[in-house]
């Protein structure tokens, strides 16, 4: 049995006071000083923690919002002096897609590197837009693949990037057909470049250290070479290059060939001459995997399929950072675009030979699994790793404006530790999901829609005959 993939982690606490959802307002004036005060009975000990926080106050602009909202103290105070309040700062985190819940759970995972547990029962909605309109089939949750989670069996999360030959040819016992290089990564996750809307912090040195430690890949804009590594990292550049995939920006100076030879993958932007550029790169750097980045706009799906028809073997389809089709009035969501590309490649007979990387809107590890079920081989994501550093996804993140999370001045160990923890938490959740779905191999998740249920499809099947098809907005 091969050695198991493992990420060593340690907790990395936040630098700033936590921005929780609930706080308690305490009208102390009328307090009767009961000997069995309900505050002492808080199972999370929040009242004592709040007193300690106020005694050693470092930040006058942060109130204490760490109550879990169980209502125990509120309901049982004999003089009804306590009230639960919602933190307005919490409600302002992120946007409609990157909800405060997503941001808060990402902070928690980056701190602890563990699977978030929401407590007694799920209190959210059961269906929504985007990936929330898709459920995974967990019916195998009690079957033996659960053993894989607890170490007795092996659940493999590794995937391949590159062209896989449709068949092998042998002559006199030797393979004579071409066997292109493929790249194997331990989790179906690639760290992407930052979307242009979030430009404030320079995070590449942390990202590159975290991907080196976890052996995944980060895409780095070639304009940022070599500044993407800090002074110390540059002295041992060779240790980082296998985990870097340069996005070869045509406006940037060329990356030296001896540097490219030490990497395993590069990315080029889509253009009329993308396939010629790909061929030239493969000739100059034999064995390198070349991905073509295709923006998923109005013609993105057609373009991705056409590129594969013309010989491309790795396509990186990227929607906007909310997972929507780019610059379209009624955009489709990334999952629907992946399904269409995947299905069309199956129909053309090319699907098994090519790799589809899907990016945009991948905010949680469940999105990674769901994107794979829709037909992606690998997903790319960036913002969760920025959120890991206590970022709040402000709508006006720009150089020159002050960052409320102080991201310009974070420590190296803190930044790397939080990113590494988040990668580990995503990996653990993928294993949990796969165990519950009865899957032992991430490669087999690709396009297995039988393991998923789609809200629109079920609604149409159940209610369509009675009420007609739902009208799109
Ligand atoms: S509502 Fe619950 S969690 Fe919050 S302070 Fe009261 S007892 Fe503690
Ligand atoms: S906290 Fe706001 S300003 Fe700071 S990096 Fe995040 S989005 Fe940008």
How many discrete domains? 2
Distance between the termini: 52 Å
Number of discrete helical segments: 15
Q: In what range is the share of β-strand residues?
A: 5-15%
How are the strands of the biggest sheet laid out side by side? 8-9-10-11-12-13-14-15
The name of the CATH superfamily of the largest domain reads Aldolase class I
Small molecules (ligands, ions, cofactors) in the structure: iron/sulfur cluster
Structural key phrases:
473 residues; alpha/beta; TIM Barrel; 2 domains; eight-stranded parallel beta barrel; two-stranded antiparallel sheet; binds iron/sulfur cluster
Question: Topology of this structure?
Answer:
Blueprint: E1 22-26, H1 46-55, H2 72-76, E2 82-86, H3 88-91, H4 100-112, E3 134-136, H5 146-149, E4 159-161, E5 170-171, E6 174-175, E7 183-185, E8 189-191, H6 204-214, E9 217-221, H7 231-234, E10 244-247, H8 257-260, E11 265-269, H9 274-284, E12 289-295, H10 300-309, E13 314-318, H11 334-348, E14 355-359, H12 365-374, E15 378-381, H13 383-387, H14 412-437, E16 452-454, H15 455-467
Parallel strand pairs: 8-9, 8-15, 9-10, 10-11, 11-12, 12-13, 13-14, 14-15
Antiparallel strand pairs: 1-2, 3-16, 4-7, 5-6
Helix pairs in contact: 4-14, 6-14, 10-11, 12-14
The structure holds iron/sulfur cluster (SF4) (2 copies).
């Amino acid at each position: 049995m091969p050695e198991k993939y493992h990420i060593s982690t340690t907790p990395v606490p936040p630098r700033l006071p936590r921005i929780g959802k609930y706080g308690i307002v305490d009208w102390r004036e009328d307090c009767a000083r009961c000997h069995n005060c309900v505050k002492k009975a808080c199972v999370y000990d929040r009242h004592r923690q709040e007193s300690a926080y106020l005694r050693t106050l470092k930040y006058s602009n942060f109130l204490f919002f760490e109550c879990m909202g169980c209502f125990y103290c509120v309901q049982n105070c004999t003089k009804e002096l306590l009230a639960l309040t919602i933190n307005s700062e919490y409600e302002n985190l992120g946007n409609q897609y990157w909800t405060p819940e997503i941001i808060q759970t990402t902070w928690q995972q980056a701190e602890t590197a563990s699977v978030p547990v929401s407590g007694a029962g799920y209190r959210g909605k059961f269906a929504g837009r985007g990936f929330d309109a898709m459920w995974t089939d967990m019916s195998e949750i009690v079957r033996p693949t659960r053993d894989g989670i607890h170490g007795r069996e092996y659940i493999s999360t590794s995937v391949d990037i590159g062209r896989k030959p449709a068949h092998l040819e042998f002559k006199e016992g030797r393979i004579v057909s071409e066997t292109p290089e493929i790249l194997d990564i331990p989790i179906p996750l690639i760290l992407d470049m930052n979307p242009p809307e979030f430009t404030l912090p320079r995070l590449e040195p942390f990202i590159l250290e975290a991907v080196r430690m976890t052996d995944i890949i980060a895409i780095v804009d070639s304009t940022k070479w070599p500044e993407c590594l800090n002074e110390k990292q540059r002295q041992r550049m060779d240790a980082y290059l296998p985990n870097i995939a340069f996005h070869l920006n045509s406006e940037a100076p060329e990356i030296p060939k001896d540097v490219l030879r030490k990497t395993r993958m590069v990315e080029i932007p889509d253009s009329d001459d993308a396939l010629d550029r790909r061929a030239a790169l493969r000739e100059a750097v034999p064995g390198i995997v070349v991905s073509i980045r295709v923006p998923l706009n109005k013609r993105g799906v057609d373009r991705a399929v056409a590129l594969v028809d013309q010989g491309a073997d790795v396509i990186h389809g990227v929607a906007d950072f909310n997972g929507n089709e780019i610059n379209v009035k009624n955009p489709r969501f990334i999952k629907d675009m992946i399904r269409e590309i995947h299905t069309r490649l199956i129909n053309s007979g090319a699907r098994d030979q090519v790799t589809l990387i899907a990016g945009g809107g991948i905010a949680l590890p469940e999105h990674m699994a769901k994107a794979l079920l829709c037909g992606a081989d690998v997903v790319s994501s960036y913002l969760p790793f920025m959120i890991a550093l206590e970022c709040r996804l402000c709508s006006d993140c720009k150089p020159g404006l002050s960052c409320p999370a102080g991201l310009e001045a974070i420590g190296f160990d803190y930044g790397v530790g939080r990113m590494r923890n988040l990668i580990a938490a995503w990996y653990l959740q993928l294993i949990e999901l796969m165990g519950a779905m009865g899957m032992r191999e991430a490669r087999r998740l690709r396009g297995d829609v039988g393991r998923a249920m789609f809200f629109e499809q079920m609604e149409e099947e159940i209610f369509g005959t009675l009420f007609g098809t739902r009208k799109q907005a």
